[in-house]
Structure formats: structure tokens, C-alpha cells
Fold this sequence. Notes:
By secondary structure, the protein is mainly alpha-helical. About 85% of the residues lie in helices and about 0% in strands. The protein is built from 5 helices and no strands.
Amino acid sequence: MRTPLKRYYLKSILPGLLYIGLTIGAYLLEPSAPSQAVKTVLAVLPLPPLVWIFWLYFRYLGECDELERKIEMDAMAVSSMTGLLAGYTLLLLYDFQVLDVNTREMLSLLVLIIGLAYIITRYIGIWRFRV
Length: 131
């Protein structure tokens, strides 16, 4: 593992733990939230640490070499295209009453598909270009 990637992983630990903690906390506090405004704040509370992770990721992209950047860009492109195709497919299956899923299930499935497409493409790229 190259130094920029190690540095990115180490710097991501704190915001990652913060994101997980705030997400769990938001779910635990949500049932007792007195108003929609408080629920809205709880819903978006985990987002700043996630933005922090994304900011660290873009800094990592600036530090890595061309091959690492190509692997990352390929993974982002494939996950974006896969997410678009999966989302459109799920929408059509839902519209034609082939799937009977609620919005939460559909969005959860879509996020899972996008994440898996990124991870798989990234590790195939790393494996493929390993010297």
C-alpha cells in the first residue's frame, strides 16, 4: 500500500468513527424528537463527517500517481453508471408493479449497489495493475 493511501486511511479514521457515532445517535434520538425541525437536524447531523471524508479523499487524489488516480476514476465512473442503471431499473420495475418495495428499501439497495460497484471495480483495478 502506497504512502498517500495509508495517510488517507489514517486521516479517515476519526471522521469515519464520528460519522458512525452520529448516525447511531441520530437513530436512537429520532423517536423522541419533538418536532420535524429536530428530526431534520438529526437526519443531516452525520453528513459533515462524511463531507470531511470526501474532502480527505480528494486531497488523496491530488497526492497519488497517475495509475492510482486512473484506478480511482475508473471505480467512480463504473459506480456512477451502475448506480444510474440500477436506479432507473428499480424505478421501472416499481412503476410496472414488478417490485413492491418502499422508498427506504429502494434507496438502501441503490446505495449498496453503488458502493459494491465502486469497491469491486477499485480492487479489480488494483489487482490488474499490480506490478
